[in-house]
Amino acid sequence: MDESEESEEEIQMSDDEYNMNEFQHEVQESLSTALREGAAAENVVLEINASRHAYNVSMEDVLTSVVQGILKAGQERSTASKGAEGLWPAVKSSITAFQGVLRNYVKKNRDQILLLNAVETLVRSCPPFLPLAKGVLFELNQTHEILDDEVIVAWYRGGAAGATSPLPALRTAVS
């Protein structure tokens, strides 16, 4: 590979990263606004899909951004202190408000694994979400029936295709 090919590849990667960052920002903004205004799930999905096409983002990245955006939208609405007790009601409310959006993107077992991996990635980058992980999984599994028991168990054990074994701290938090 010569220098011109290498620099083009670096520029392309930079463009891809830029597009992904912009897409994530737009998703977060859309979800936060929709939560504040009580927008219908169909409208939120249309807005997210328009952004997806504008930034040429994969469905896997869409799902990851949507899941993390929903949880962060709850965090933005939290008016209590930084503790998990104050954060949980707002995050739970956000999950409930966007269950229709999640159902639009989570249709197969693979989508469920991507959702679980997105939660894990968020927990890694935002430690305040770690104590909420068990509640998030409960809401998505028991309350809204978006996650199947078998998929959660396979993810927990690290045996599902595309699944990573959860972080030890996350494993403890959801046990």
Question: What report would you give on this structure?
Answer:
It contains 9 helices and no strands. It is mainly alpha-helical. α2 packs across α5, α3 crosses α4 (84-97) and α3 (59-77) packs across α6 (109-125). The protein is globular and about 40 Å long. The model has no long low-confidence stretch (mean pLDDT 86).
Which tags fit this structure?
mainly alpha; 175 residues
Give the CA-CA distance, first to last residue.
Answer: 49 Å
Strand content: under 5%
- Taken in chain order, the helices and strands follow as HHHHHHHHH
Mean pLDDT: 86
Shape: globular
Helix/sheet category = mainly alpha
Helical content stands at over 70%
Rg over CA atoms: 17 Å
How many helices in DSSP terms?
Answer: 9
User: How is the main sheet built?
Assistant: none
Record field, number of beta strands: 0
**pLDDT < 50 runs, ≥5 residues:** none
